[in-house]
Structures are given as C-alpha cells and as structure tokens.
Automatic annotation (TrEMBL):
<feature type="domain" description="MaoC-like">
    <location>
        <begin position="27"/>
        <end position="139"/>
    </location>
</feature>
<protein>
    <submittedName>
        <fullName>MaoC family dehydratase</fullName>
    </submittedName>
</protein>
<dbReference type="Pfam" id="PF01575">
    <property type="entry name" value="MaoC_dehydratas"/>
</dbReference>
<dbReference type="InterPro" id="IPR002539">
    <property type="entry name" value="MaoC-like_dom"/>
</dbReference>
<dbReference type="InterPro" id="IPR029069">
    <property type="entry name" value="HotDog_dom_sf"/>
</dbReference>
<dbReference type="InterPro" id="IPR052342">
    <property type="entry name" value="MCH/BMMD"/>
</dbReference>
<comment type="similarity">
    <text>Belongs to the enoyl-CoA hydratase/isomerase family.</text>
</comment>
Length: 176
C-alpha cells in the first residue's frame, strides 16, 4: 500500500510588485546586522579606501570619536541590502539612483544596524509599460535607536501583470 502525497503549491520568496508598495506602511527589515571589525576592514580594503578612521586603531583613538568608524559606504550598502528580500527581490528592474544620503551618527564595530523603509511616492513609468517607479526612504538605526544612516532611492519595479511568472529569477508566489 502506497501513501498518496498531495501535490504542493510552490511559493518563491520575492519582493513587492509595484501595486503592493504601500505609502502607509513602515517596512522593518529583520534581522539586524551586527557589524564586526572584519566586515569593516574587508570592505574598506576591497574598495581601496585607505582612510585611517577605518583601518588605524591607534590613530583613530586620538580622533574625536576615540575609535575606528565603520566605513559609511558599508553602512549604506547594508542599509539598502537589508531591504532587498522584503521589497525588491526578483521584482526590481533597475535601481535608478540615490538622492540624499546622510550619516548623522557613527556606526562602530559591534553595533547592530536595524533598517526600515517607507515609500514616499510611486507612479507608473511613462516610457516602460508594465513597470513602475517607486521612491523609497531608508533609515538605519543602531541597537540604541540612534539614526546612523538615511538614504532616498528611486527604483524601477515590475507591475504584477507584466511580470514573467516562469522566470527562475523572478518567481511568482502563486501556484506555478
């Protein structure tokens, strides 16, 4: 006697389609990311940034913050990267650009970065049918709630009905 196993629906993790971005929602991206010394040194050296504030512990100790700072470009990359799974994984057509970027408080080794995003505007693309433009404001806070980074970003995303549900890189969450 053989047990019959019913067919399972397939659900692929993805970001939001244009229609799903909501101007009334605060999207909190979890888990947070605790930044290590190795993260900072690797990112800084990979990007050829020789700033002593990121690499030289003895010299940085004599500077206003008294210790090395996490590279702000690492902070920005992690801030935006942490939003991908929830907002744009497989639904992004292109990152169109950044507006204002700020770092109002330093991030240090051992701090945990928590990220959140609000949608500040959206419109259908005039030149690319089936796609929409979404304006996002990302905010990063450390474990104490201090804002360590902000960035505005404009992204081009797929509309639901124009999305290729059969693409392995842009899976659709419904039955395939």
């Amino acid at each position: 006697m053989t047990d019959s196993v019913p067919a399972r629906r397939t659900v692929v993790q993805r970001g939001l389609f244009y229609e799903e971005f909501d101007l009334e929602v605060l999207y909190q991206h979890r888990p947070g990311r605790t930044v290590t010394e190795a993260d900072n040194v690797l990112f800084t050296t990979l990007t050829m940034n020789t700033q002593g504030l990121h690499l030289d512990a003895a010299w940085s100790a004599t500077q206003p913050f008294g210790q090395r700072l996490v590279n702000s470009m690492f902070t920005l990359s992690t801030l935006v990267g942490s939003s991908v799974a929830q907002l744009t994984q497989g639904t992004l057509v292109a990152n169109l650009g950044f507006g204002s970027v700020g770092f109002p408080h330093p991030l240090f080794h051992g701090d945990t970065l928590y990220s959140e995003t609000i949608v500040t505007g959206k419109r259908l693309s005039n030149s690319r049918p089936g796609q929409g433009i979404v304006d996002l404001t990302h905010t990063g806070r450390n474990q104490n709630g201090d804002v360590v980074a902000t960035a505005t970003r404009t992204a081009l995303v797929w509309c639901r009905d124009s999305h290729d549900a059969t693409s392995p890189t842009r899976g659709h969450p419904h039955e395939l």
